[in-house]
């Protein structure tokens, strides 16, 4: 049987090649992936649609597993992904706008009998939203105005709580 490192490496190679069938083959049917703050997927049912959409939105999607640390039936994979949001479809409700993304994340894999049974994927969604143009650039005038509006709302809510007491 392949080692945990070999299975993790093969899975991420499949993602890098946009090989959805290869990705699905790495999973035990009925297992799940949690993309923290984004999605929960069941394998294989949701994989074809979700990743097919991702790859169609980012046709030049590239992923590189930068480091894999494995112990027993668990692996941690630090990855970097790049792509241009200029394909078809929508991603997280947004239509492609030509933006370039360069993000890093960590996936925590759990295997049983040589198959993936769970992945927790963690990435900085705020940074990705900024790169996509869905949120203003950090430190920009629009970012400062948004923060000011949030802080005003927070102050008003605190005053209302004080008045009610």
Question: What does this entry look like structurally?
Answer:
With 165 residues, the protein is an alpha+beta fold. The model has no long low-confidence stretch (mean pLDDT 95). The chain has two domains: 4-134, Nuclear Transport Factor 2, Chain: A (Roll), CATH 3.10.450; 136-165. The protein has five helices and six strands, in the order ααββαββββαα. It is globular and about 65 Å long.
Quickly describe the structure.
The protein is an alpha+beta fold. It is 38% helix and 36% strand.
Q: Kindly report how far apart the N and C termini lie.
A: 65 Å
pLDDT under 50 segments (min length 5)? none
- Apparent shape: globular
Largest beta-sheet characterization: 6 strands, mixed
Q: How large, in whole angstroms, is the Cα Rg? A: 19 Å
Could you give the topology of this structure?
Elements: H1 4-16, H2 20-25, E1 27-35, E2 39-43, H3 47-57, E3 62-71, E4 74-85, E5 99-112, E6 115-123, H4 125-132, H5 141-164
Parallel strand pairs: 1-6
Antiparallel strand pairs: 1-2, 3-4, 4-5, 5-6
List the keywords.
165 residues, Nuclear Transport Factor 2, Chain: A, 2 domains, 5 helices
């Amino acid at each position: 049987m392949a080692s945990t490192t070999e299975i993790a490496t093969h899975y991420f190679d499949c993602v890098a090649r946009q090989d959805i069938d290869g990705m699905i083959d790495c999973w035990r049917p009925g297992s799940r992936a949690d993309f923290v703050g984004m999605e929960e997927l069941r394998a294989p049912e949701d994989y074809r649609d979700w990743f097919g959409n991702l790859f169609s939105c980012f046709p030049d999607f590239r992923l590189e597993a930068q480091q894999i640390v494995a112990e027993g039936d668990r692996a941690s994979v630090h990855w970097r992904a790049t792509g241009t949001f200029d394909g078809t479809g929508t991603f997280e409700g947004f239509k492609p706008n030509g933006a370039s993304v360069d993000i890093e994340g960590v996936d925590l894999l759990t295997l049983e009998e040589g198959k993936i049974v769970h992945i927790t994927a963690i990435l900085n969604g705020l940074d990705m939203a900024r790169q996509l143009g869905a949120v203003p650039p950090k430190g920009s005038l629009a970012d400062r105005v948004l923060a000011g509006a949030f802080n005003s709302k927070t102050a008003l809510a605190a005053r209302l709580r004080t008045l009610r007491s």
